Amino acid sequence: MPRESYESDMQVVREELQVLAGMAADAVENSVRILRDRRMEEGEALIEADLLVNGKCHAIEEMCLNLVATQQPVAGDLRFLFSAMQIAMQLERIADYGKGIARINAGMPPGPHVKPLLDIPRMSGVAVSMLRDAIAAFLNQDAEAAERIPARDVELDLLYSQIYRVLLTHVMQDPRRIDDALKLTFVAHNLERVGDRVVNICERVIYYLTGEVVDF
C-alpha cells in the first residue's frame, strides 16, 4: 500500500473516531434531556440508534486491525491504532450508558419526577464536556490536556453522592416514591460511570503519545 494511501487510512480512523465520540456524547445528552422532560416517545429512537454506535465501533476496530495486518506499523503508529481501538470500545460503552438511561426513563410512570432534575443534567454536562475534551486531546496529540481531565471526575463523584442523599431524603418523606428515586439513582450511577470511561480514554491518550502506562 503506498504511503499516501496509508496516511489517508490513518486519517479516516481519526475522523471516524471523532464521529463515534459525537454519537456517544449525543446518546448521553439526549437520554438525560428525554428523562428530564419526560419525552417518552423519543426514548425508543435513542435506544435503536445504539445499533449505529455498535456498527461504527466495529468498523473502526476492523480498520485498525487491517492496517496492523497489512502495514506492520511501528512505534507511534502502532500505539495510535491500538489506542484507537481501545478508545472506540470505551465510547461504545459510554453510548450504552445513554441507552440505559433511556430505558430507565421508559420504565418510569408518566408524570413529574420525585424531584425536579437539576444535578443529573449537571452531571451529564460535566461528563460530556470531559468526553469531548478527551477526544480533542487524542486528536490534537495533547498529553498535558489528557492529564488534566481526570481531576474533573471528582465533581461527578460529588454530584453522585449529593443526588443519592437528596433522593434518600425525599424517600424518607414519601416512601411511595422509592421506585422512582431508585431509578434516578441508577441514572446518576450511569453518568458517574461515563466519567470513569473518560478517565480510561485519557489513560490511552497518554499511552499513545508517550508510551507510558498510567493509572489515574
Compact description:
With 216 residues, this protein is mainly α. It has one domain: Phosphate transport system protein phou homolog 2, domain 2 (Methane Monooxygenase Hydroxylase, Chain G, domain 1, Up-down Bundle).
Question: What keywords describe this structure?
Answer:
single chain; 216 residues; mainly alpha; Methane Monooxygenase Hydroxylase, Chain G, domain 1; 7 helices; 83% helix
Set down the secondary structure blueprint.
Blueprint: H1 3-37, H2 40-71, H3 75-106, H4 119-139, H5 143-148, H6 153-173, H7 178-210
Helix pairs in contact: 1-2, 1-3, 1-4, 2-3, 3-7, 4-6, 4-7, 6-7
Q: Specify the CATH homologous superfamily.
A: Phosphate transport system protein phou homolog 2, domain 2
- CATH fold title: Methane Monooxygenase Hydroxylase, Chain G, domain 1
Number of helices: 7
> What value does the Rg take, in angstroms?
19 Å
What's the helical proportion of residues?
A: over 70%
